[in-house]
């Protein structure tokens, strides 16, 4: 169920099943309904409510997931009609995030989103669903008592979490400032959930980040150092997968996590090019980037922002030869598009060269000759660039190999007039 447009109905239903699977639910039945007019009391029409009630009874179900956002009144009325626990799309995604968040920051962000979501809801405890689990108990169990707490206590807890997250954001900002002083380019992977970001991350870094066919397999950001043709060091960041109708609570709560995207020099938008809804998924990702103020340069008329490459992943899943040829021709016509398979490695070399081409000019390496007594010039290079190597020439001069962006190199030459060469 749901009001999202532009999407294939079968693919949309499969995504909803995937979200349920991601939280370990045993999906017994699923239905897609066209909701011509949303009912304030139940969202669905009376006949649709009865049809689901019959299915619930037949399957002896304990939970119904409605792949749409429900008001508190709609949720309560549907629970009475079906006599089972009901959660909506937002609640399910929050539950997934509650189980997957691995870092203290991630847990704080999810708890904040959970409290914001539950603050206006009256949710009973369904003790027969209780089980020990990592999430925040949206499906019943540990954490449900939080919902029964006084509203003021919830607001106080939310304020405390926001203060803690502000401290995390400041710390992250200091780390980012240090990276900017030593100008290693930062590359952020973004994309719809399950597009293959983590598989590509592992391919580029040699790491073993969790990569599996499951929605939201990656939640907390992971960063690794990589090398590219002509670039000794770059930082690659794998971020949480985006999804259509991402709960607004999570866009706000995960802003600190997604700040790596805001500060990146290059964004790789990883797309599952074999998915029937690949164009709609692209639109969803750009919508969230727009809300974050992180649209890359050249996208939707945006002049500023980081450089951008669209990575058309999962080319190995395109079985139809004619469709494959059409995709290859389309990729060839587009600027900054690379077709590849992160799983097989086909096309990854093309991506690495494209990344280096976009980043290389801003992070060139220079050989600078200095007087050994010129400590001020050497200190300037350390504070504005990455000093890769130091040596002494036969004449006794200091030879410094340093990586600088072009603007800093020009400033250095104007200020110190040193003898330099670049490559």
Features:
single chain; about 425 residues; alpha/beta; Rossmann fold; Alpha-Beta Plaits; 3 domains; 6-stranded mixed beta sheet; 4-stranded antiparallel beta sheet; elongated
Care to describe what's here?
- The chain is of the alpha/beta class and 423 residues long.
- The chain folds into three domains: 9-147, GTPase HflX, N-terminal domain (Rossmann fold); 183-361, P-loop containing nucleotide triphosphate hydrolases (Rossmann fold, 3-Layer(aba) Sandwich), CATH 3.40.50.300; 363-422, Alpha-Beta Plaits, CATH 3.30.70.
- It is 44% helix and 17% strand.
- Helix 4 (89-100) runs antiparallel to helix 5.
- The chain starts with 8 loop residues before the first helix and ends with a strand.
CATH superfamily of the largest domain, please? P-loop containing nucleotide triphosphate hydrolases
Find the count of extended strands (DSSP E, 2+ residues). Answer: 12
Helix content: 40-55%
Low-pLDDT segments, ≥5 res: 122-136
Q: Can you tell me the CATH topology of the largest domain?
A: Rossmann fold
Radius of gyration: 26 Å
The quaternary organization reads as single chain
Question: What can be said about the biggest beta sheet?
Answer: 6 strands, mixed
Summarize the structure.
With 423 residues, this protein is an alpha/beta fold. It has helices at 9-22, 46-59, 72-82, 89-100, 104-118, 144-147, 151-181, 197-205, 248-253, 255-262, 278-292, 321-333, 348-360, 375-384, 406-416, and strands at residues 63-66, 85-88, 186-191, 222-228, 231-238, 266-272, 307-313, 337-339, 364-370, 386-392, 398-404, 419-422. It has a six-stranded mixed β-sheet, sandwiched between helices.
